[in-house]
Amino acid sequence: MRAVVFTGTRSVMVQDVPDAELEEPTDVVVRVTSSAICGTDLHMYDGRTGAEPGLVFGHEPLGVVERAGSAVEMVERGDRVVIPTHLYCGVCVNCARGLSAACLRVRPGGFGAAYGYAGMGAYRGAQAELLRVPYADANCVPVPGEPGDDLEDDLVLLADAFVTGWHATELAEIRAGSTVAVFGAGTIGLLAAYGSLLKGAAEVYVVDAVPDRLDKAGELGAVPVDYRQGDPVERIRELRRKGGLPIGEEAMGGVEAAIDAVGFQACDRSVPGEENPAQVIADLARLVNPAGHIGIIGVHTEKDLHPAPQGYADGRLTVPWATFFAKGVSVRFGRTHDRRYTVLLRDLVLSGRARPSTVVSHHGGLDDAPVLYRSFDRRADGVIKAVLRP
Ligand SMILES: NC(=O)c1ccc[n+]([C@@H]2O[C@H](COP(=O)([O-])OP(=O)(O)OC[C@H]3O[C@@H](n4cnc5c(N)ncnc54)[C@H](O)[C@@H]3O)[C@@H](O)[C@H]2O)c1
Ligand SMILES: [Zn+2]
Ligand SMILES: [Zn+2]
Fold it and tell me: What's the family (predicted)?
């Protein structure tokens, strides 16, 4: 089968690799119809997280079951399914609690696993014609319709992007009436903003420096804030003041909920061209209101081969701990417990209430992957979210 293979820093190639096969009776093999490229892939593509050349990338698949193992009961050949990024067994104590990203059985010696990701288990990626899905009864989320129909792009975003954006809104405790700031207008930040608006947030600000991404934030109903035009924390406070702060809130003027949808490769606002993994967290600490909530959904890695000047190879960070304490804010992190949200969000899509596909900017075949990766990595050519159709 053909697959997108990592061949070294800032290089992927489409290569022939052995077909995905059934290895356990509980597996299925899925024929992939759509497979999205994610900002998470870029951390590896940039040569930061120790991915080995030869790794098949991809963790956001939608497809059709091609073969099912003898013990699989819930899906069969021909079923259309979306496969959550973080695979899980479905029955261990963490899975039983709905904490599927902390599954204790999918990565011996560790917890949690993902397809096509360095350090997250020996599972080949989904930017390929075929994908082996272990514990298929747990991991296949059935969806209606036919490959290539009007919902193809909405459904593929259920594998990771939409659920992760939603998880960010849960980490930051967003509810009806919340005031929200999201740093990062990539797919995850945009869908965190979209999820906030679906939940009824009163005001949503989205911070970035890439014009087409900021435009997309505006299109979704958020207020775009371009950090090239000055300190985004001051700018959001000023916008809130100008808009008229709610009665009684004059002494605050920040936001109740603030999200990091950037991660450790955040741009340093004072040194253009350089990274600063603590930049966004420092901004959130300044912006969040007393007793507010911070959600960190951007990846912070325990292994960074080329840390930025303020960073460390093991991912340690200097963060304003005392500010968090003084303000009494909650700070929550982590990988998405996909399975908590996939069915809920699938049904929001099927009812027509949610259309996350508005963030999809590009399509291509597997052969287009090298070009799409290059543009996406530079946040150029209008690439926000690219979906490959193998
Ligand atoms: N926790 C999870 O389960 C999970 C799942 C998927 C993705 N992620 C992570 O979420 C993050 C975002 O993913 P994406 O696909 O949207 O990536 P992306 O790279 O497309 O988006 C990141 C955006 O952040 C912006 N940015 C950089 N520095 C900034 C700063 N200082 N202030 C504001 N914006 C800044 C960039 O311009 C870019 O638009 C990545 O770290 C990704 O690995 C986490
Ligand atoms: Zn992803
Ligand atoms: Zn488990």
Answer: Belongs to the zinc-containing alcohol dehydrogenase family.
Domains of the chain, first to last: 2-160+337-388 (3.90.180.10), 162-333 (3.40.50.720)
d(CA 89, CA 112) in angstroms, rounded, equals 10
Instruction: Using the atom order of ligand 1, give the atom closest to the CA of residue 268.
Output: 31
- Tokens matching residue 230: 């000055």
The per-residue pLDDT for 18 is 98
- Cα–Cα–Cα angle for 61, 63, 69, nearest 5°? 105
What does the pLDDT read at residue 180?
A: 98
What ligand has the least distance to the C-alpha of 139?
3
* CB of 280 sitting under 6 A from ligand 1: yes
Distance CA 382, CA 390 (A): 22
- Is any ligand 1 atom within 6 A of the Cβ of residue 34? no
pLDDT at residue 339 in the model: 87
Q: What is the pLDDT of residue 160?
A: 98
Please identify every stretch of the chain with a pLDDT value under 50, giving residue numbers as ranges. Answer: none
Closest residue by Cα to atom 40, ligand 1, is: 298
**What's the gap in Å between 7 CA and the centre of ligand 2?**
20
Identify whether the C-beta of residue 343 lies closer than 8 Å to the C-beta of residue 163.
no
The pLDDT, as a whole number, for residue 367 is 98
Is the CB of 385 within 6 Å of ligand 1?
A: no
Residues ≥6 apart with Cβ < 8 Å to 390: 2, 32, 33, 35, 127, 128, 129, 365, 366
